[in-house]
Amino acid sequence: MNFTLKIWRQKNRTDKGKLVTYAVSNIPPDASFLEVLDVLNGDLVRKGEEPVAFDHDCREGICGSCGIMIEGRAHGPNRKAATCELRMRSFPDGDTLTVEPWRARPFPVIKDLVVDRSAFDRIMQAGGYVSVKTGQAPDANAIPVPKHHAEEAMDAAACIGCGACVATCPNGSAMLFVAAKVSQLALLPQGHAERKERVERMLAQMDAEGFGSCSNTYACEAECPKQVSVQHIARLNREFVRATAL
Amino acid sequence: MTLDAKIPSGPIEKKWDAHRFNMKLVNPANKRKYTIIVVGTGLAGASAAASLAELGYNVISLCYHESPRRAHSIAAQGGINAPKNYTNDGDSIYRLFYDTVKGGDYRAREANVYRLAQVSGNVIDQCVAQGVPFGREYGGMLDNRSFGGAQVSRTFYARGQTGQQLLLGAYSALSRQINTGKVKYYARRDMLDVIIADGQARGIIARNMVTGELETYLGNAVVLATGGYGNVFYLSTNAKASNATAIWRAYKRGAVFANPCFTQIHPTCIPQSGDFQSKLTLMSESLRNDGRIWVPKKKGDTRNPADIPEEERDYYLERLYPSFGNLVPRDVASRRAKEMCDKGFGVGSTKLAVYLDFADAIKRTGKETIAEKYGNLFDMYHEITAEDPYTTPMRIYPAVHYTMGGLWVDYNLMSNVPGLYVIGEANFSDHGANRLGASALMQGLADGYFILPYTIGDYLATSQFKAVADGHPAVAEAKGATQERIARLLAVKGKRTPDDFHKALGHIMWNKVGMGRNKKGLEEAIQQIAALREEFWKDVNVIGAAGDLNGELERAARIADFLELGELLARDAHHREESCGGHFREEYQTDEGEAQRNDKKFSYVAAWEHTGDGKEPKLHKEPLEFEYVKPSQRSYK
Questions:
Q1: Does CATH place domain B267-399 in 3.30.420.10?
Q2: A191 in contact with B at a CB cutoff of 8 Å?
Q3: Roughly what angle, to the nearest 10 degrees, separates helices A231-244 and A175-187?
Q4: B166 vs chain A: nearest CA distance in angstroms?
Q5: CATH architecture label of B478-598
Q6: ipTM of the shown complex
C-alpha cells in the first residue's frame, strides 16, 4: 500500500511548527501505523534528514505512550484501539493522512508528535491513591467487595492515561481521566476513607493545570481506546457534590 | 573474587525472620540523612521508591519514560501468584517454593525462592489495600485461577491486565510520596553510567532526554530496577525502549553478570508476519487454561483449520504430557512448538505457528464465559491479525519474553559492588533457568515492597560514607566517559541506521542463541556478533545532535550495549554444556527430547566479570546447594 503523510514537524517547544508532506510506499496491510512511521524514519535517516519524533513503547495498546491525531481523530479511525494497534488495512490504499500531536494547552509540544503529559502525573500526585503504607494492609480477603463493584472499578481502572480524551474534547477537559481514578476508588471500600479529599484535590489540580470543563459532548468516551464510560464522570460529579455540598 | 551469597544459616523457613532480626536498623531520625537513587519505575522500582520514602529515606526516582506509569511492567497480562490457599486446594508457602525451584530446573537459590514465597501473600494484601481491582467471585472474595505449570489455583488477576493494575497501584504509592516531597522524581532521564567512588556505588550519570544535558545524581546507594534485556533479540514481547544499558554499564564498572543465557521464550505469542515488524505481541498464557494446542497430523496440511477433522489433529501437548497437557511450563511448551514446526507440521502462511483452539471451551462453557475471561486478548488478536479467535483457532508461536539472567545479587539483593542493589527482572533473580507464569510480578513487587527496604537499611547502618560531590574524580570520570561515548556515536557518520544493526543482531541471536542452541552455532554467533559490532562502530549513522531530543542517539547507545551483551549471552550458552529450563543445548537432551541437566558439572550460578574491552570475561561460580528440593528430571507427564 502507498500513503501520503502530512506530518506535524516542530523542532522544540518554542518553534512554530508546520505540516510537512512525505510519501511512503510498499507498506504491507498488516503493518501498524507506528511501523509506517518507522519505515518513514528509516528513509529519512538514510537521506540525512531528522526522523519524526513520536512517543511509543509497548506497541500493544497498554502503556499509553503513543497518542497521535490522525485525520483529526485521536488514535485514528478505529474504536477501541490506541495508535500502535491501528493497522494500515484500516485505510484505503493511496490515502492522504494528516498526522498531528495532541492539541491541548496543558499538553505542550516538546518535539514533532511528542507532547508533555506530565500534568496527568501531577493530578495523580494530588490525590489519585489510597494512603496505605507498605506493610499496613490487612488480609486481602478481609474486606469483601461485591463483584459488580470490582468489575466496574476495573472498567474505570483500565484507563491508560494516553490523553486521547483531552485531545478530542472541544474544551480540552481531562474529566474522563480524572473520573476514571475517582470512580475506581469510590467504588472500592479501600478508597472510601479519603473520597472527599481525593475528588477535591484532583479536580483542583486539573483546574490548575489549565484543563477545560466538561460540557457533556461524550467525545472522550467515543475516542477512548479503552472505552472508559462517561458514567464515571457522572460518578465523579456525585462524589464532588457529596464532598462539597453535603 | 569470591561470590558470597550471604545466605543466613538455620532452617529455610526461619532464615528470613532471623535475618531481619540480625540486620542493623537505621534510627528513624537518621533515615532522612540518607539518599537512595532508584532507577526505573516499573513494579520493582516504583514499589521500592515508595516504600523507602515511607520509611523516611530521601529517594531520587528516575525513569526514561515520560511518566512512571509507562514502565513495561504495565504489559504483563496473566496474573500474580501467592500461596494464600483461598481455594483450599492444598497450596502452601512450601508448595510455591517447591514449584518455583523445580520449575526453574534447579538453577535458583533455595533461600531466595523460599523468601519470595513467604512474602508473596503480603504483596497481594498490599495491592488490594491500594485499590487494585482484582477479579472477584460473587460473594465478594478474591478469585484465583490456575496458571501455566501449577496444579493449584494460586494466581490472582485483574482481567488480562494484571500488570497494568499492579503497576498503577505501585505508581499511586509513588505518586503519593512525590506529593509529600520524600521522592524527587525525574522523568525522561536515561541512566548512562554508574558512579563508583571509594569502592561504593554513590550515584549515576543520566541524560536528560529532552535537553540532552548530562546530569549527575548522587546518594548513599543506587538501586537498579531497570528490567530485562530481551530486546537483544530485536523482536520480542518487550517494549521498544526496554534495554540493558543500566545493567550493562554497571557490569562494565565491575558488577558481575549472572546466567545471561537464561532467557525465556514464551510459547503463546502472535507469530511474526513480515520483515517490517517492530515487535511481537504476547497472548497471555492463561489462554492455555481453556485453549487446546494442536497441529495437523499431516505435514504441510494447508486446509482451513475448520476443515481438518478431529482425528487428523495432533493435540501434541496432551499426547506427550497427559497429566499437565496444555499447561506444561513455558520452556517445554515453546520447545515442543518449535519442534512441531521444524518437522513441517506448522500452520499459517509462514508455517511457523501452531493452533490454539477455543472451540471446545466455547462449546463447554459458552461464548460469554470465554469473552469475560479473555475478551480483551481476543480483541487484541483480532486487531492484529484480522482473524476472529471465537470462530477460528488462534495461530501462536514462541517469542522472547523474559530474561532470568541479570546482574548477580546476594541474599540482600546487593550486587558485588557495595551499595549497588539490583531488583526485579534486572537481577538474576529467583527463577533459575525458567520462570513460571505469574511469578515475575510476584518477584518485582516482593523485591520492592518487602525485601529491599529492609536489606538496604543494614547496608546504610553499617557503612561509612565519605563526602562525594560533583567535583569528585569518580564523578568527573564517569561524566567524561559518557560524553566521549556519545560523541563517538555521533562521529561515526556511516550509512546504516541503528535499527539496521539491531535487526541484524536479532537475526543472529534468534537463529543461533534462541530456542535451540548448539556448540557450532554458538561459536559462529560469537564471531558474527563481534564482526557486527566492529561494523557498527564503522558504519552506523546517528543523525541529529547530542543536545536535543534524539531518539536515534538513544537507540544507537542501547544497541551498542546489546552488541556487547549478545556476545556474553552466547558465551554463557556456549560454556553451559547442559540443557536446563529455557537454555536448550541440542547436544544434551533425553531420548524423549527433554532438557538434560548435568548437575555434577553445572549446578552453579555462572557470574561473568568484565576484564576490559576486547578481553574475554572471567567466569566465577556460585555453587548451588539443594537441601530441600532434591534435583530430579522434571517430569510433567
A1: no
A2: yes
A3: 70
A4: 11
A5: Up-down Bundle (1.20)
A6: 0.98
